[in-house]
Design goal:
The chain has 190 residues and is of the alpha/beta class. The chain contains 9 helices and 5 strands. The N and C termini lie close together (12 Å). 31% of the residues are buried. The structure holds adenosine-5'-diphosphate (ADP). The site of adenosine-5'-diphosphate has 18 residues, from α2 and α3.
């Protein structure tokens, strides 16, 4: 199996690149942000709980997102592999993911970490906020909180995966196609 953690700060381009990778490598895309937003639009109990947290730019609890990923893994027993997008975001989530995959006799193949400077991230997110209406993209102080959460809780996962020799850092500035080519060449050389 090919199991990829697509990593990077909010606005790094994980969603865009995931869509290209799932087609090229025939993978299942698991985005915790997308799953949470669909819970919100369906008005589920979980969605109602998550909405105010997400609108502030804080992280949803580990327990909730680990449970979501666990059931998605169970629901896709025949997958060729997975792209984890926006997950894991904390060390507890990364450890849980390793254990879930071990239970299925597989593991993470690589962490592809997209590198983009903060000023570019803020520009991209504000534009997405205008285009899509996403509540957490509209306001510069919420965006700053998300980048802060990323730096404090999520960025340390680069060390977690580099300790397993699985970290690959990719320049996230350039055209969508240029960045896709960089990601493909790392995967093709695994
Ligand atoms: P972005 O990466 O641009 O911030 P996402 O769609 O990945 O967008 O995440 C949006 C929000 O959803 C996050 O700010 C957070 O509140 C919540 N979220 C998504 N994934 C997780 C996760 N793995 N752990 C905790 N919260 C999460």
């Amino acid at each position: 199996m090919l199991n990829i953690v697509l990593f990077g700060p909010p606005g790094a381009g994980k969603g865009t690149q995931s869509n290209l990778l799932i087609n090229k490598y025939n993978l299942v895309h698991l985005s915790t942000g997308d799953i949470l937003r669909s819970e919100i639009s369906e008005g589920t109990k979980l969605g109602v709980e998550a909405k105010s947290i997400m609108d502030r730019g804080d992280l949803v609890s580990d327990e909730i997102v680990i449970g979501m990923i666990s059931s998605k893994l169970d629901n896709n027993p025949d997958a060729n592999g997975f792209i984890f997008d926006g997950f894991p975001r904390t060390e507890a989530q990364a450890t849980a993911l390793d254990n879930l995959l071990k239970g299925k006799e597989t593991s993470i193949s690589v962490m592809l970490s997209l590198k983009v400077a903060d000023d570019e991230l803020i520009k991209r997110l504000l534009k997405r906020g205008k285009d899509s209406g996403r509540a957490d993209d509209k306001n510069e102080s919420i965006i700053a909180n998300r980048i802060n959460e990323y730096n404090n809780k999520t960025a340390p996962l680069k060390t977690f995966y580099s300790n397993q020799d699985k970290l690959s850092e990719i320049e996230g500035i350039g055209s969508v196609e240029e960045i896709a080519n960089r990601l493909n060449s790392v995967i093709d050389n695994l």
